[in-house]
Design goal:
single chain, alpha+beta, PH-domain like, 6-stranded antiparallel beta sheet, 4-stranded antiparallel beta sheet, 5 helices, 15 strands, about 30% strand, elongated, RTT106/SPT16-like_middle_dom, RTT106/SSRP1_HistChap/FACT, histone binding
Length: about 290
């Protein structure tokens, strides 16, 4: 039995290190059969997605990878939509690092400066255009660094909202779920997404499904649900979630759904570090390689 080099070369042509590793490890008929079976499976998946075998797509930052769908936004001026709920003193870190008021309307989620009624340009999100929503811990006490305009990232305290920070026509209803900011925002986001006909659900990290063995100095009693790393020269955090892998919180934020992951490989393995390469199938209608 011989290795199926036609398929292996078609799949891993840009990665000679992987091909060399397969050649070294294919010592027995059983291992050769396993490598051929893997090659057949991946090659078939690539074909199903309309991707030529020799043109696998590496995940890169770009339109469609940051959690904002490409659908058309509702017509009209967001400022003219009645505000159903607004929450003051929310620390936004993406796209601008500043405290804003977050406003929930029938058609939009947007940020505005305190004491104003006009949405901040570039911080208006139609409910029908939201593709992903996450609730994750902040790995550090303070975050730094810019991020792309498309996603909205904000942090909330672990305490209850302060008196007078919640307003809008639905503030009375919101009071019943305002014991914590988490409860308030889960309720408000789910309520508005459902009303907009969206099936997007908030995805939270779960230490029972994944956690790091590295102790957190600032949270010694909590398990870290992320792994520190670098993308190029920029440091950040990998969150392994039940729906995919999220890289944050530095620019660019990237989310890779599990269904799009084509292959995962490891290179430059040293004593305490290694490189991880995640390759993904292109999104439907995405012409980029």
């Amino acid at each position: 039995m011989e290795l199926d080099w036609d398929r292996l070369n078609a799949i891993f042509q840009p990665r000679q290190d992987i091909l060399d590793g397969i050649k070294r490890c294919a010592e027995t008929p059983g291992k050769i059969a396993l490598f051929n079976e893997i090659a057949s499976h991946v090659h078939g998946k690539l074909a199903e997605n309309g991707e030529p075998g020799a043109k696998r797509r590496k995940v890169q930052a770009g339109p469609g990878t940051n959690g904002v769908a490409n659908g058309s936004a509702p017509a009209g001026n967001p400022a003219d939509d009645p505000v159903l709920l607004h929450v003051k003193e929310i620390s936004v870190s993406v796209p601008q690092r500043k405290k804003f008021e977050l406003c929930f309307t029938r058609n939009f989620l947007y940020a505005r400066a305190p004491g104003t009624t006009v949405p901040i340009q570039g911080m208006v999100y139609a409910w029908t255009n939201i593709e992903f929503a996450f609730y994750l811990p902040v790995p550090e006490k303070a975050q730094s660094g810019p991020a792309p305009i498309e996603p909205l990232v904000f942090t909330v305290p672990a305490t209850a909202p302060k008196e007078g920070t919640i307003g809008g026509s639905e503030a009375g209803t919101a009071a019943a779920v305002s014991d914590t900011y988490r409860g308030l925002f889960h309720w408000a986001l789910n309520r508005r997404l459902t009303a907009a006909g969206s099936d997007v659900k908030i995805v939270s990290s779960d230490p029972n499904k994944f956690h790091s063995m590295v102790r957190q100095p600032h949270r010694p009693n909590e398990k870290a649900v992320y792994v520190s790393g670098f993308r190029g020269s920029k440091d950040g955090y990998l969150f392994f979630l039940e729906t995919g892998i999220l890289w944050g919180y530095k620019k660019p934020l990237i989310f890779i759904p599990l269904k799009r992951i084509a292959a995962v490989s490891y290179t430059n393995i040293l004593q305490i570090t290694f490189n991880i390469v995640i390759e993904a199938f292109p999104e439907e209608g995405d012409a980029n390689d």
